[in-house]
Fold:
Amino acid sequence: MAKRPEPIQVVKQRRDAALGAIVSGVPYARFLGVTFDRRGDELTGILNFDENLIGNPFLPALHGGATAAFLELTSVITLSWSHHFPAIESGALDPEAMANGELPRMPKTIDFTVDYLRSGLPRDAYARATISRAGRRYASVHVEAWQDHHDKLYAQATGHFLMPSPSDNGGS
Amino acid sequence: MDKVAVARQFIEAIPHASALGMVLKDISGGRAVISMPYDERFIGDPKTGVIHGGAVSALMDTCCGAAVMSHPAAPGGTATIDLRIDYMRAATPGQTIVTTAECYHVTRNVAFVRATTVDDDTDRPVATASGAFTVEKKF
Structure:
């Protein structure tokens, strides 16, 4: 007989705790006001609007650097999340230990190229990253950001990342 | 007021640049230098204390924009069309990082810029960038 699926609360709590630990492990995400919405294993980054994100006060428009940082954060968190998802699900990575600072190493950015398609409006922005290739050492990620309409992207980016080597994982 | 003074005033009034503690060191003739002191709120990896690449991106984007605005052939403001950043090494925790950007060519509609970021070890760049920016008629 097949194994009974886990109760929904157990699954949700484990995944949300693991994601929360990964995101809170990046102080810069808090500084920018970037949070993540999770549906299954799919993540959406949210850049919560704040006056401090403005780059041109006359328009006003979001700072290109804030947008670049938001896209890079979404890429690196999505990459880290997908890289560690099997270990989170199997229990090899314990969300409680992660919350106490035993975080796996993050991927490192090698290069990042941002296309600015429209001026960023002074309101929330959303981003989703797609992992084009996740190799053992290198990963290639594409990320798209929008505001009011998902089909009207305001920025997109492509980046390459160096994955943490297995010996870097866990512990300090 | 002369062009460079207007550009300086504009850069110093950017909310996101002041939130990140950026200081405009030098600006003239299509070249700008901006520094950003180390701050624990900018950390990307708490295990190492290294600041997040996004903070470096924000510094480089601001500095490239400042270089464009100070160029003699650029009449007004600017916006980033595209910016590529290469990360050579982690910035040493605790050290101020400094970006120098040079706007090396301006057409009627597009300005081309490159930039380098260093920490105390100025011989080994932390990151380099190259990008294209719009040329606006006014600010």
Remarks:
- DSSP finds three helices and eight strands in chain B.
